[in-house]
What we know:
The chain is an alpha/beta fold. 40% of the residues lie in helices and 18% in strands. A hairpin with a 2-residue loop joins strand 1 and strand 2 (7-8). The model is unreliable at 1-29 and 502-508 (pLDDT under 50).
Amino acid sequence: MSLKKGIAFSPPLLCTLVFFLLGVQICVAQNISRASFPNGFVFGTASSAYQFEGAVKEDGKGSTIWDKFAHSFGKIIDFSNADVAEDQYHRYQEDVELMKDMGMDAYRFSIAWSRIFPNGTGEINQAGVDHYNNLIDALLAKGVTPYVTLYHWDLPQALDDRYGGWLDPQIIKDFATYAETCFKKFGDKVKHWITVNEPHTVALRGYGTGIHAPGRCSIRFAGFCKAGNSSTEPYIVGHNLLLAHATIVDIYRNSYQKKQQGSIAITIDSFWYEPMSNSTADIEATQRAIDFYLGWFLEPVITGDYPNSMRSRVGERLPIFSATESALVKGSYDFIGINHYTTWYATNDTGLIGLISSDVNDSGALTLPFKGLQPIGDKANSIWLYIVPRGIRSLVNHIKHKYGNPIILITENGMDDPKDASLNDTKRINYHNDYLTNLLAAIKEDGCNVKGYFAWSLLDNWEWNAGFSSRFGIIYVDYKNKLKRIPKQSFKWFKNFLTTQKNTVAHI
Length: 508
C-alpha cells in the first residue's frame, strides 16, 4: 500500500498511521508463510568462509589479509580473531542438519580462495577441494541447494604482499584462474555462483576508511593507516573487482554454463536512502547517495559504465572502461544478488560535516539515521543498523524502474542482538516478518522480479571488525560451552514459516 508515490508503508506502520489519523485501531496484520510467496521462491541462510569456518591453519590453508588484520592490535573491537570462529570446517554436518530441520531450501556459503590456492596461485591444495566437495555433498544429501560465493573478502595474503592485491590488474588473471578451478572441481554439483560479495564494502572499508582488511586509507593519525589514498584507491579497487567479476562470468558462459546448466551473478550491498526533507537539494542528494552506493557497481553490469553522477563528480580519479571492457561488463549477470539491512536519510552536504558520514564524500550527500533527534527506526545492536522494513520494498522498486527489472535474489538480510542477548529474539522475528511482508508486496503488488531471500545469518558468527560483539544468528552459538548450537525463537519462527502451508490471512 502506498499513500504517497515512492513511499511504501509496511502493515505495522500503516496501523500506527491509521490510528493516529482516525483515532481507531483498524489494522491488517499479515500472517505470511512460504505459501504466500510464488512457487519456486527460494528461502535460505547465508554465511562466509572466514566468519564461520575457523581452522585457519589446517589442511594446507594459506593466510589471508583478514588473518593479518585480525591479529593486528586495535583493529577488532573486542580484540578477538576468527582462528576458530564457529568451527564450521569441522562441524558442517551438524549445521546442515539444522538447516534441513528448519526447512531451508538453500545455503549460501563462500569458498576460501586460500584453501584452494594457499599462495593465491600455483599448486592446488587437494585437501581444500575435498572439504568443499564434502560440504556440497552433505547439503545435497539433505535437499539443501548450495549457492557458492567465490570471493567474500578473504584475499590470500600472498597476493597482497606480491603486488597489492585488488590494487593491481594482475588480480583479474589470478582470480580468474581460481574461479575456473572451482567451476572444474565443483560445477557439476553447484548450479548457482556469486563472483564477488559486496564490492562496495571491499573498496570503501578496505581502502577508503581502513576499518577492514587490508586496512588502507589516508588517515595517518596515531598510525591508523600506514599506507593508502582514500581519494583514489577505492575507485581503482572497485574497477578491478568489476573487471574480475565480468571476466569470470565470460569464462563461465563460454566454457561451463551450457554443460553445467548453472547461473552466475554478483552480490551488491546497499542501504536505501530517503530524503531528509522535500527540498530539491535533498532529493537530488538522495539520488547521488544511491548512485554512489548501489549504482557504483550495479550500473556497470547493466549498462557498461558508471552512473553519470559519479563520472561528473569523481572526474579523472574514476577509471574508464575501454570499449572492450565496457562490452565485457555490460550484461555480466544472470541474476543480481542484493544484500540489504537498513535505511538512512540523505541530505545535501554543504560543508565539511560530510567528512563525518562518508568514506570518500564525492557524492556530496550527508547520510544519517536521524532526522533531528528522531531515529528513522528502532535500532538493532550495530550502530549503523536501524530497522526500516519499507526500505527493502523501495530498494527493489528502484532497481525495477531504473534498471529494467532484472532477476533479484536478496542474498543477505538480517539484524543483530548484543553479545549477551537471550534465545528469545522477538525483535529478530519481527524484523524478518516485516521485511518479508514488504518484499512480498514488492513482488505481488509492484511486480518486482525477486526470486529468493537469504537470512543473515545461520549462526552467530565473527562479525569482522566487530568480532563477537554482536549476534546475527538464527542459531545461538555458546562461545563458553564448546560452540554449542542452540536454536533461537527465530529458528522456530522460520521453521513454522517454511512448513505452514496457508495463504496470507487478514485479521481485523
